[in-house]
Design goal:
Structural class: mainly beta
Helix content: under 10%
Radius of gyration: 17 Å
Number of helices: 0
Order of helices and strands: EEEEEEEEEEEE
Shape: globular
Strand content: 25-35%
């Protein structure tokens, strides 16, 4: 897959009951987690969350009970050693990935990964915020939170795809409006079953 830039620290979201917290590290193409002390001093890791194929960007996490984590990220099966995500071709189809680990304090624990949405964007994704010169339809308002009563995740994400029979945005009138600001809107995906990062009955 070729050399990658070293991981860079990203913003963190933590549960109140975690004794050790988990910070996120990312480089173009992968997401990783590492346990850190309350002052964010790296203690171990990082440990790979995503697979080795494709590209994953913009990871965000939510922590529940001690050692229980949800991590979301934008993902595509496309990967290039010669291009950055903002220059990816239209065949790079992006969706939202969800990774969960109920034993994150144990080195080598297993992450369960699934795709949480259909395709939400095709082509390049700019990662430079307000300095972007390319497509910025996948805005920086991406995130995840878990319901403390059920432990199930809700994900807020951007989507710029036209949908038949549904109004996604006021100016999104036809399929050819996909991948433009006309169809860009905020969407929510809520987990209905599966792994829970909070114990039931809280």
């Amino acid at each position: 897959m070729g050399p990658r830039r070293p991981p860079r620290p990203l913003r963190r979201r933590h549960g109140r009951r975690d004794r050790k917290r988990a910070g996120l590290l990312a480089s173009d193409g992968e997401a990783a987690a590492a346990p850190v002390a309350p002052r964010h001093v790296l203690k171990a890791g990082p440990y790979r969350i995503t697979g080795k194929a494709g590209t994953q960007i913009f990871p965000w996490s939510a922590a529940g009970d001690a050692g229980k984590l949800d991590v979301v990220y934008y993902q595509t099966g496309y990967y290039s050693t010669k291009k950055t995500p903002d220059t990816y071709p239209r065949r790079a189809a992006w969706s939202v990935g969800l990774a969960q680990d109920l034993h994150a304090l144990k080195p080598g624990s297993t992450w369960t990964r699934r795709t949480a949405t259909p395709i939400i964007h095709r082509g390049g994704v700019c990662e430079s915020g307000v300095a972007c010169t390319g497509n910025r339809d996948l805005y920086d308002d991406f995130g995840v939170a878990a319901n403390p009563r059920t432990g199930l995740a809700s994900i807020v994400y951007s989507d710029d795809q036209w949908q038949e029979g549904g109004l996604t945005a006021p100016d999104c009138a036809k399929r050819s409006d996909s991948n433009t600001g006309k169809c860009d809107h905020t969407a929510i995906a809520t987990q209905l079953s599966g792994l829970r990062i909070f114990s039931r009955g809280r």
